[in-house]
Amino acid sequence: MVSTTVPSQQGRTAGGRFRAWLLEGLSDRAGQQSGPHAAPQAGHAGQRWWRVMCLTGLDYFSTLGYQPGIAALAAGLLSPLATVVLVVVTLCGALPVYRRVAHESPHGEGSIAMLERLLSFWQGKLFVLALLGFAATDFLITITLSAADATAHLVENPHLTSTFQGHEVVITLVLVALLGAVFLKGFTEAIGVAVVLVGVYLALNVVVVAVGLWHVGGSPHLVTDWSHALTAQHGNPVAMVGVALLVFPKLALGLSGFETGVAVMPHIEGAPDDTEERPTGRIQGARKLLTTAAVIMSCFLITSSIITTLLIPQKEFQPGGAANGRALAYLAHEYLGSGFGTVYDVSTIAILWFAGASAMAGLLNLMPRYLPRYGMAPHWARAVRPMVMVFTLIAFLVTWLFKADVDAQGGAYATGVLVLITSAAIAVTIAARRARQRGWTAVFGAISLVFLYTTGANVVERPDGVKIGACFIAGIILVSLLSRLSRAFELRVTGLQLDAMAERFVRDAAHRRIRFVANEPGVRDAAEYRDKLRQVRADNDLPAEDDLVLVEVTVRDPSDFETEVRVHGEVLHGKYRVLTLEGAAIPNAIAALLLHVRDVTGVIPHVYFEWTEGGPFAQFLRFLLFGQGEVAPVTREVLREAECDRARRPRVHVG
Predict the structure, then answer these.
(1) What is the CA radius of gyration of the chain?
(2) Element (H or E) spanning 497, and its range?
(3) Stronger pLDDT, 483 or 203, i.e. the higher one
(4) Measured CA angle at 269 (ends 90, 44), to 5 deg
């Protein structure tokens, strides 16, 4: 008997310890999880903008590991011209848009928060959920694509090819698993690490690009042969430009760093006179960050596309070729020797892996920023470790589906990036229009059209991104609806404030039995209140001398989940005392008022309702979607969940 009991207790103890470890820090983690995208903790002094730029560089500059190869594979000999178009779109389109986003959303929320503010009610929430799906696509593909490209650099290293070739999927899965393990243990990044990684990586790329340009300059026939090949393929310069305009959406990976640039804004130190409402110094620092990063990346994009197109045979860019997914690394080995090439590979692998860590931190900060506020996340989703496991498993699945192929994931990555940039362009266009800035409205509207075309062309050419994004959107919406259903009867009130008149009503009523009458406000004339009180007294057999206080709730935005309720007291028509409340749902607001009155007076209040006409299922849908429906039973259910002691639970009466 002892031998069977003790293991059981040990098992329960071990299970309890595992559960405690798994759900450690179960709270709303929005803006708290450490990582490049996390908001700094209270008292954080901030960092110089150029140091914070290196956090952006983890996502942005690391794309040099695979961008030139993907560009050459997608655009062929037109890669330099298509890259010039991409740079023009970057500097004249994405950069102005995100400089405006930095001004409109200086606390790191980004363009999604701008659209959330501009669009209200359920359409706004559903739109945000759709954008979250594409943001999840962007970040998760960043993890898997970066790991796959790190694997490519590892496998193609001359010293390791014979050992690791043919095991790309396994190596990529190991890298993703190591990333997940780091976050399960607890990931604390330092800006200093990012500065070192980005600084070393950019310095090595400067050497590679400089040597590549020197070789191009020393061999004029390379440019001549390239121009002759272009003429043979496309005929004349006008046709080349036209084809480049059509091809450049395939190069959209080069736009990947802008959303990250505004996400890291809370890390930027502000001016001494900055306020939380208007951090002018932080906004200026963010604009310097975005501009400098865009200029640096544009220079690398153009120069790298030139040297890789002119110096690397086109066949090497194809799947299985030595330059596939690692064009600059190929040049590093080819022109600077195996030793330098290995150092370059190590630096590339490090920054790509760290970019995956940045993306994981972004996911862990992005989802809790929105879903818990919408009531659209299970309770365990507020803990970091369960979410790390979920994202790691999804990354495993994506890696397996794409077979750790860098080229195959490029379309999905570009789609996620382009959807976010397009949404940002639309958001700043709406913001400029509301600010009555006609010139900027026209400019941002034109930029929005460019990105709509780019996104559409990318989707038509490579629909994988939309398919993956649609899967994430469907999953998020399904989980969100199930969570909203399961949590519908929570109290859902973050705070309740009474004005002076409302507090006076409560104090007066505390000297006798407290009776509230729920009333759906109509014309609010004397006849409405007289008839309502007369009917309640008759239905519930209440004596005429009993004091009754009317309660009216106005639903503001029923799509909100948790809200603060403000209670305003007033005397209407010289005799009717009315408490007016504003909240996201009528039953939850009334339940919060009843519990508050009980707590401040020590008296159990009573509330009186009328039955609502209509079927129960339709009424429940009205409550779920519009915060109304059959108020009486839902109020009672909210009170039951909030107060388990029946003796202390406010009384609900229905007549």
Answers:
(1) 30
(2) strand 493-498
(3) 203
(4) 125
- Which residues partner with 335 through β-bridges? none
pLDDT, the chain, mean: 82
DSSP string, 62-88: GGGGTHHHHHHHHHGGGHHHHHHHHHH
* CA 529 to each of CA 302, 517, 545: distance values in angstroms, whole numbers, following the listed order: 74, 10, 16
What is the reported pLDDT for 445? 94
Q: Mean pLDDT over residues 181-207, rounded?
A: 81
User: Helices 79-89 and 67-75 sit at what angle, rounded to 10 degrees?
Assistant: 120
The Cα–Cα gap between 327 and 72 comes to 9
Q: What is the pLDDT of residues 382-438, one digit of tens each?
A: 677 788 888 888 889 888 888 888 777 877 778 888 888 998 999 999 989 988 999
- DSSP string across 534-584: HHHHHHHT--TTS--EEEEEEES-TT-SSEEEEEEEEEETTTEEEEEEEES
Q: Which helix (H) or strand (E) holds 496?
A: strand 493-498
DSSP H or E run through 609: strand 606-609
Q: How far apart are CA 68 and CA 63, in angstroms?
A: 9
CB 173 within 8 A of CB 144: no
Q: Write the CA distances from 563 to 199, 383, 486, 497, integer angstroms.
A: 45, 22, 18, 12
Confidence of residue 624 (pLDDT cuts 50, 70, 90): low
The set of residues, in sequence order, having a beta carbon less than 8 Å from that of 363 and lying 6+ positions away, is 136, 139, 140, 387, 391
Burial class (CB in 10 A: 0-12, 13-18, 19+), 523: exposed
* DSSP annotation string for 92-142: IIIHHHHHHHHHH-TTTTHHHHHHHHHS-HHHHHHHHHHHHHHHHHHHHHH
Taking the C-alpha atoms of residue 463 and residue 455, their distance in angstroms, rounded to an integer, is 11
Pairing mode, if any, of strands 576-583 and 549-555? parallel
Residue 568: beta bridge partners? 580
Give the span between the Cα atoms of 469 and 477, in whole angstroms.
12
Torsion of CA 99, 371, 592, 624, to 10 degrees: 110
Q: For residue 235, give the DSSP letter.
A: -
Distance between CA atoms of 445 and 428, rounded to whole angstroms?
Answer: 9
The rounded distance, in Å, linking the Cα atoms of 248 and 240 is 12
Give me the mean pLDDT over the 594-619 stretch: 84
pLDDT of 170 strictly over 70: yes
